Amino acid sequence: MIGESECQTRYMESAETKTIEIVVNGATRRVPQGLSLDRLIVWLEIDPSRVAVERNLAIARKTDWASTDVEPGDRLEIVWFVGGG
Questions:
Q1: What is the pLDDT of residue 11?
Q2: What's residue 74's pLDDT?
Q3: What's the pLDDT score for residue 13?
Q4: To which H or E segment does residue 59 belong?
Q5: CA-CA distance, 20 to 67, in Å (whole number)?
Q6: Hey, is 17 helix, strand or coil?
């Protein structure tokens, strides 16, 4: 039989989201651990069709976003394309 305190501990571990610290456009952010670049863009509520991403001083190709994991300490620059005339 599992004691009440052990059940509470298990619940707290599963209910808490683990986060990592990254830098986005010069600002330190805490984001959920385990995100790929494409999921991070969605989590940040950015339209992925209108941005380019630089990760640690290298351009991240859009075709690689899904397979590129965001790691603690990553430095990202996200640039929005703006139309106008």
A1: 44
A2: 98
A3: 45
A4: strand 58-60
A5: 18
A6: coil
Q: What CA dihedral angle connects 53, 55, 57 and 59, to 10 degrees?
A: -40
The domain total for the chain is: 1
Question: Residue 66: inside a domain, yes or no?
Answer: yes
Domain CATH for 52: 3.10.20.30
User: Is residue 5 a part of any domain in this protein?
Assistant: no
**Residue 12 phi/psi, 5° resolution?**
-65, -40
pLDDT in tens, 46-82: 999 989 999 999 999 999 999 999 999 999 999 988 8
Q: Scan for tokens 């986060």, then name that residue.
A: 19
Separation between Cα atoms, residue 57 and residue 43, nearest integer Å: 22
pTM of the entire predicted model: 0.76
Number of neighbouring beta carbons within 10 Å of residue 57: 7
Q: Could you give the 3-state DSSP secondary structure of residue 80?
A: strand
Domain limits for position 46: 19-80
Would 14 be classed as within a structural domain?
Answer: no
